[in-house]
Write a structure and sequence with these properties.
Structural class: alpha+beta
Function: Adenine glycosylase active on G-A mispairs. MutY also corrects error-prone DNA synthesis past GO lesions which are due to the oxidatively damaged form of guanine: 7,8-dihydro-8-oxoguanine (8-oxo-dGTP).
CATH architecture of the largest domain: Orthogonal Bundle
Pfam families: EndIII_4Fe-2S (PF10576), HHH (PF00633), HhH-GPD (PF00730), NUDIX_4 (PF14815)
Distance between the termini: 65 Å
GO molecular function: 4 iron, 4 sulfur cluster binding; 8-oxo-7,8-dihydroguanine DNA N-glycosylase activity; adenine/guanine mispair binding; metal ion binding; oxidized purine DNA binding; purine-specific mismatch base pair DNA N-glycosylase activity
Oligomer: single chain
Keywords: 4Fe-4S, DNA damage, DNA repair, Glycosidase, Hydrolase, Iron, Iron-sulfur, Metal-binding
CATH superfamily of the largest domain: Hypothetical protein, domain 2
CATH class of the largest domain: Mainly Alpha
Cofactor: [4Fe-4S] cluster
Largest sheet: 6 strands, mixed
Helix content: 40-55%
Low-confidence stretches: none
Shape: elongated
Length: 362
DNA sequence: TAATCGTGGTA
DNA sequence: TTACCAAGATT
């Protein structure tokens, strides 16, 4: 039991990690732990799928409230499938990567209408569904069905790159890492628990900046730790620095029957913030828009006042968004459009950048 | 293969 | 402030 592990012995690595998971693994809202299973609790594939979609590139604390809210509002895949898409998008607002929400809704409709509400167990059948790629298909197989799978997320990439001290930088090393990860995953029983365990190890012990190697169940097998170079792995290519884009948006309010209202519009279907609500405004360009372009983008001719500037960071550029505000005179209905009660702005489903702009206008 | 696609937390 | 990071998928 105290014998040193070897990274060329996948069976013992697998067993050691499972033993660690039984003691130290996290309890997460969507997770069925071994002791839960012993009490007869079974995973709900719909709830598992929902969690995996929300957790793509997203932290547990950020995703968790959304997961609870979605399950409460739409308890089954049929409920979600029959919900209006604008309701789903609004409920997703603030989580980011909005293509996930569009794909999630499309996936729910396929599962509800074509698959009788049952998620597939087959890897290729899962991967064929919208929003489900290689990682998520394996994660659903493992967490929902306890079927053989190899999950490789950012956590696992880090753990495996350190264990084998892989010199190839990401993302080129993905194939090599996947192969190594699959070898260990396939070398034991309890595939569902193993998948959770290897991700937990990366999330709580083998962390990016300050790994807790002293308590790691794989310490005695880890090549990077032997070299005292844990945080040098995984190797990564340098990232490009983000360009800046500039834009102007318009915060127009009027007096409605139930109080003040704000003018919004829906963004185009695809692309950045696709299908989400926004304040009307100019395009976001590398050069600040000129006066003519700004005037042409205003929803109405008015005495626009400068309300301030929103700075927001997207995945591949930074945005500096000037907010201009105006209030229509009493009795002036203003332009056609989606007027939203200011008192219910949170339910309007604004993405974070637009919520910042909306607040700045008051 | 490389770009695109959010957000909030942390060092 | 800047840079990095978090249960990736799609085109």
């Amino acid at each position: 039991m105290t014998n040193a592990l070897s990274r060329s012995d996948p069976g013992r690595l697998n067993a050691a990690l499972l033993a660690w998971y039984d003691r130290q693994g996290r309890a997460l809202p969507w997770r069925v732990r071994p002791e839960d299973r012993a009490r007869g609790v079974k995973a709900d594939p719909y709830a598992v799928w929902l969690s995996e979609i929300m957790l793509q590139q997203t932290t547990v604390p950020h995703a968790a409230p959304y997961w609870h809210a979605f399950l409460q509002r739409w308890p089954t895949v049929h409920d979600l499938a029959s919900a209006p898409r604008e309701d789903v998008m609004a409920a997703w607002a603030g989580l980011g990567y909005y293509a996930r929400a569009r794909n999630m809704h499309a996936c729910a409709r396929v599962v509800s209408e074509e698959l009788g509400g049952e998620f597939p167990r087959d890897l290729d059948a899962l991967r064929a569904l919208p929003g489900i790629g290689d990682y998520t298909a394996n994660a659903i197989r493992a967490a929902a069905f306890d079927l053989p799978a190899s999950v490789v997320d950012g956590n696992v990439e880090r753990v495996v790159a350190r264990l084998f001290r892989i010199e190839t930088p990401l993302p080129r090393a993905k194939a090599e890492i996947k192969a190594a990860a699959a070898g260990i995953a396939a070398s034991g029983a309890r595939p569902g628990d193993y998948a959770q365990a290897v991700m937990d190890l990366g999330a709580t012990v083998c962390t990016p900046r300050s790994p807790a190697c002293g308590i790691c169940p794989w310490r005695s097998a880890c090549a990077a730790c032997d070299a005292g170079a844990q945080t040098d792995y995984p190797r990564k290519e340098r990232k490009k620095q983000k360009p800046v884009r500039y834009g102007v948006c318009f915060h127009l309010t009027r007096d409605g029957p139930g109080g003040a209202e704000l003018l919004l519009r829906r963004r185009p279907e695809a692309g950045l913030l696709g299908a989400m609500m926004e304040l009307p405004g100019t395009d976001w360009t590398e050069e600040a828009p000129v006066a003519e372009a700004i005037a042409a983008s205003a929803p109405v001719g008015a005495d626009w006042q400068e309300a301030g500037r929103v700075r927001h960071v997207f995945t591949h550029f930074r945005l500096e968004l000037d907010v201009r505000t105006a209030r229509l005179a009493a009795g002036d209905a203003g332009p056609q459009g989606r007027w939203v009660s200011v008192g219910a702005l949170k339910q309007a489903g604004l993405p974070s950048v637009m919520m910042k702009a909306a607040k700045l206008g008051f």
